[in-house]
Amino acid sequence: MHKDTQSAPISPEDVTPLIRGRPMHRLQVTVVMLCVAMNIIDGFDVLSMAFVGPTLSREWGLPPDQLGLLFSAGLAGMGAGALFLSPLADAIGRRPTILICLLMVGCGMLASAFVANATQLMATRAFTGLGIGAMLSTNIALVTEYVSAKRFGLAMGLMAVGFPLGATLGGAAAAALIGSQGWSSVFLLGGGATLAMIPLVFFLMPESIDYLAAKRSPRAFDRADRLLARLGLPPLDRESRAAGAARGGRLRALVEQPYRGRALRLGAMFLLVMLSFYFIVNWAPKLAVEAGQPPEAGVLMGTLLNLAGAVGAVVSGLLVRRFGLRRVTATAIALMGVGIVLFGFAAGRPALLVPVALGLGFMMYATMMGIYPLTTTSFPASVRVTAVGLISTAGRIGSVLGPLLTGLLLAQGLGIVTIGLLLALPALAAAAILLGLDHRDQ
Fold it and tell me: Mind listing the pLDDT tens digit for each residue in 267-293?
């Protein structure tokens, strides 16, 4: 046994500082790798409807408005899952919640492959989104609770990379599958990959030590002690075991002091960031074509955004250790706003479009790297996943408002330059909110 396990018992409040201050153990690396793998699969699952949409529209004769409802069903489910299912992770634990979500997502994806009409597909996509929304919130909290301070930024960068990587790989797989196996094969692949994660998580994923320490029950403390021993750390203090159960994670706790102001500010930041972010994700390729670029330029721009985004997430994660999470994230958000303005001017200019797309994608996913861990590190373990779920739900509202607002502005006859200027404002406002947060909210 490691010599540290012979040291004096530690209080529950000391668990996080001790884990953060030590080199990464293989158990911690396992947690990060499993969560990154799930993010990659989630990226595929979320965008699977976009991959099959054109084929379904042609085969089923779907009008654009009905296809739009199919696209929105999964996002609506994700918002509901983040809001209503995420608290499960603070009530029954991170590990069982992830297992439940994997089962939901896997079954939802498989069911989507066997639907007979758009109404059935809308229902299965919404059900799939429920699991994805809660799983995203839980995974980011679990990584935050296990990663060391030295590798924190890198872990967050890898988590942010997982989603666009899954989307990119999924797009390539879908293109190959749909032509030979039909659209249902895309959902079968996503469902199979998701369900394959269940035994890996069941046998390899530990429960959060922070969560167990916050429970303050004899059984939870015993489980925490076994995990602490695997990390070479002392057991929890027996006097703390008798201190009584901590308050469980509830949505109500986040509207009470001292969390209310923090949750409101972070929720506003999330909403504004996602409004600008999803304007680019949904409309940038089409606006480039509308500005006179060939259709291939729109496809190229979407690809460049994801590729540059993968680099941006990792690089910004590495910068966190030197400059701090809040400063790096606020800078990325502000520069994303500047990039949106530049996109408005570059959309009709081929020579500018590629460098602007690269820079904008870099900053977009550098932003994604930071905003979720800012939430997890701003709340205690007893309400952490509940907080991430509630605040990310505000982000889902922004993700719907961004594309909708863009359509309304286009309908009013506004030009791309003007729209770029207007939709950069939410990002710039979000950066200002983040810089105004108290240092304790990092």
Answer: 999 999 999 998 887 777 777 777 777
236 bridge partner residues = 10
- E strand or H helix that includes residue 343: helix 325-346
The answer to whether 372 and 365 have CB atoms below 8 angstroms apart is no
| 10 φ, ψ (degrees, to nearest 5) | -110, 155
Tell me the pLDDT tens digit for each residue of 25-36: 999 999 999 999
- Give the span between the Cα atoms of 102 and 117, in whole angstroms: 25
Distance CA 424, CA 442 (A): 24
Could you please state the CATH topology (level 3) that the domain comprising 251-441 is classified under.
Growth Hormone; Chain: A; (1.20.1250)
Q: Give 245's pLDDT tier (boundaries 50, 70, 90).
A: very low
On whether the CB atoms of residues 166 and 42 are closer than 8 A, the answer is yes
What fold does the segment set 3-241 form as a domain?
Growth Hormone; Chain: A; (1.20.1250)
For residue 303, how many C-alpha atoms fall within 13 Å in the half-sphere facing its CB? 10
User: What are the domain boundaries of the chain?
Assistant: 3-241, 251-441
Q: Which residue has the higher pLDDT, 134 or 304?
A: 134
| Structural tokens at position 358 | 């690269």
Q: Which two tokens stand for residue 5?
A: 């396990």
Rounded mean pLDDT, 368-395: 87
Whole-number pLDDT of residue 171: 75
**Residue 392 near residue 268 (C-beta atoms within 8 A):** no
Let me know: does 259 contact 383? Beta carbons within 8 Å: yes
H runs (alpha helix) in 147-259: 152-181, 184-204, 209-215, 218-230, 238-241
Domains 3-241 and 251-441 share a fold: yes
